[in-house]
TrEMBL record:
Keywords: DNA damage, DNA repair, Endonuclease, Hydrolase, Nuclease. Belongs to the DNA mismatch repair MutL/HexB family. Residues 205-323 form the DNA mismatch repair protein S5 domain. This protein is involved in the repair of mismatches in DNA. It is required for dam-dependent methyl-directed DNA mismatch repair. May act as a 'molecular matchmaker', a protein that promotes the formation of a stable complex between two or more DNA-binding proteins in an ATP-dependent manner without itself being part of a final effector complex. This is DNA mismatch repair protein MutL. The gene is mutL. The lineage of its organism: Bacteria, Pseudomonadati, Pseudomonadota, Betaproteobacteria, Rhodocyclales. The chain holds residues 1 to 335 of 602 of the full protein. GO terms for molecular function: endonuclease activity.
Length: 335
């Protein structure tokens, strides 16, 4: 007869890591979201060998005090929610208290942080959750090295450095596009590849999607019955042969959602044909109670309470904007 036994904590975290930590890019997404939740205004990302060898994220956020730092790597430890009501109205990117526990179970992980007002910084690692004194002017530095060093079966699924870097670049752009007020920098193997100064939504969209897109995009800004859709969507003259330029956010979170994708396809159905795809950076905002973001640990899936109403709203907002006779294209850049 098989015997039932409780799994050790590390193994539980490693199993959970299968869902949260698919590849370096998923680590990067979680760390960027943590930095944003900490109120950072400048975030620097340094990757080595596609992020497989090292991901290092430096932020100027609120930091973590000594007592919290001891818990940061524990599973189900979060500063972001405390009750079901909090979960239903969650305004932060994170809330599951899982990412750091999962990441540190499959990679060498160090966190150095200095809380505001603290006389110095503290540091913990995957091996030692007891904080040790460290030096740092402020904010937090998270270093994740040798992803999947202890789980070879998972390591095999990682692709070449350049493929993994490509995924990291995607993850970085998705986060950066939604937070134009925050400055970001991305470097790879010691070279700075992308530097984004804090600015407004238009400037950030231009940096991420390019001048060509902005010259042939319309400003979307439609609000009705508690819903708002704003951002930029390409006119038919601009189309891509792939879906790379498609960014859709729900309450600041990048999502891939069937209802939304269908509404967008329908909105473009009469004006784009064949293998041509629109590009867009669109932000849907609604009451957090109207959308469940706790569908999957990676949180790129959501469930809408009123899917039909959302579909109609997105479809109409877009068709109306794209069909408007007056060219509301974005102004040319000032050079
Ligand atoms: P979650 O984000 O779901 O709360 P995480 O495992 O990602 O869970 O992080 C655990 C906790 O560690 C967070 O709730 C937060 O208090 C703290 N934390 C993580 N990263 C940072 C950071 N860059 N700055 C400040 N606090 C952080
Ligand atoms: Mg988090």
């Amino acid at each position: 007869m098989p015997t039932i036994r409780k799994l050790p904590e590390v193994l539980i975290n490693q199993i959970a890591a299968g869902e949260v930590v698919e590849r370096p890019a998923s680590v990067l997404k979680e760390l960027l979201e943590n930095s944003l939740d900490a109120g950072s205004k400048a975030i620097e990302v340094q990757l080595t060998q596609g992020g497989i060898k090292q991901l290092r994220i430096t932020d100027d956020g609120c930091g973590i005090d000594k007592e919290d730092l001891a818990l940061a790597l524990e599973r189900h430890a979060t500063s972001k929610i405390a009750s079901l009501e909090d979960l239903e109205a969650v305004g932060t990117m994170g809330f599951r208290g899982e990412a750091l526990a999962a990441i540190s179970s499959v990679a060498r992980t160090k966190i150095t942080s200095r809380a505001r007002g603290a006389s110095h910084a503290w540091k913990v690692s995957e091996r030692d959750h007891e904080p040790m004194p460290a030096a740092l002017n402020g904010g937090t530095v998270v270093e994740v090295e040798d992803l999947y060093y202890n789980t070879p079966a998972r390591r095999k699924f990682m692709k070449s450095d350049s493929t993994e870097y490509g995924h990291c670049d995607d993850a970085f752009r998705r986060v950066a596009l939604a937070r134009p007020e925050v400055g970001f920098q991305l470097s790879h193997n010691g070279r700075v590849n992308l530097r984004l100064a804090p600015g407004d939504a238009e400037r950030r969209a231009r940096e991420i999607l390019g001048d060509d897109f902005m010259e042939q995009a319309r400003v979307v800004d439609v609000a009705a019955s508690g819903l708002r859709l704003f951002g930029f969507a390409s006119l038919p003259a601009y189309a891509r042969s792939n879906r790379d330029g498609q960014y859709f956010y729900v309450n600041g979170r990048f999502v891939r959602d069937k209802i939304i994708q269908h509404a967008l396809r329908e909105a473009y159905a009469d004006i784009l044909h064949g293998n041509r795809h629109p590009a867009y950076a669109l932000f849907l905002e609604l009451d957090p109670a109207g959308v469940d973001v706790n569908v999957h640990p990676a949180k790129t899936e959501v469930r809408f309470r009123e899917g039909r109403a959302i579909h109609q709203f997105v479809f109409h907002a877009l068709t109306r904007t794209l069909a408007a006779p007056v060219q509301a294209a974005v102004a040319a850049p000032v050079v």
